[in-house]
Amino acid sequence: MPVQETLPPSQTGDKVISLQNASLSFPGANGQVDILKNIQLDIPAGQSVAILGPSGAGKTSLLMLMAGLESLSSGKAVLAGQDITSMNEDALAQLRRDHVGIVFQAFRLIPSMTALQNVAVPLELASDSNANEKAEKALISLGLGHRLHHLPDQLSGGEQQRVAIARAIVTRPDILLADEPTGNLDSTTGASVIKELFAAAASVKAALVLITHDEALAKKCQRLLRIEDGEITTDTHIKAGRK
After folding, report:
1. The domain spanning residue 96 has which CATH number?
2. DSSP per residue over the chain, as a string?
3. What is the pLDDT of residues 160-197, one digit of tens each?
4. Domain tally for the chain?
5. Within-domain flag for 5
6. Which residue range forms the structural domain that includes residue 209?
């Protein structure tokens, strides 16, 4: 079994994600398929973490566990100070709404809604009376003040991903999870979006967990995890993420 390297104690604050002996498995045609195996992982507030690994290694499954979008087969998961191991879906949805922002590779914007409406959705679900005002401010901060009333299909790929980032940070989450956020973008646009993603996470003081295949991008984070066959094989601290 791979051995994880020991990290120095973090000085960045309380843990916002904690996985203890976390495992995920599914029944398969030839028996149980182990997706994640006995994961031990603590992520403190404000830390940026990159997750690297080959396709099928379990990167996205690990991210889904962190978000409470997958249920553990065994072990324990704590998110934003709350044990989510046996939490029901309604409580999980509320916890995600209040504490977690997620940016996907495929943007996942609602096609019939404008940029402003897409960003306002999580605030409206929380009955925030200032939803539109806050959504507009988030979009302006990402350089999209001139695109507030455009539909997703009227936006470029980079603009759509910026809308997705605005939606993810508008509730000022404790945790920002990004799954290959530049996978559908060209290199120049992707570099710009990544810069804005880091800035957005810093602006709300959120921990950032980023799945990527890009070693150079991973080294912009403060911490680098490598995962293979469902196990974290290395856990490396980079004293200052190179942004």
Report:
1. 3.40.50.300
2. ---PPPPPPP-S-SEEEEEEEEEEEEEETTEEEEEEEEEEEEEETT-EEEEE--TTSSHHHHHHHHTTSS--SEEEEEETTEE-TT--HHHHHHHHHHHEEEE-TT----TTS-HHHHHHHHHHHTT-TTHHHHHHHHHHHTT-GGGTT--GGGS-HHHHHHHHHHHHHTT--SEEEEESTTTTS-HHHHHHHHHHHHHHHHHTT-EEEEE-S-HHHHTTSSEEEEEETTEEEEEEE-SS---
3. 999 999 999 999 999 999 999 988 888 899 999 999 99
4. 1
5. no
6. 15-237
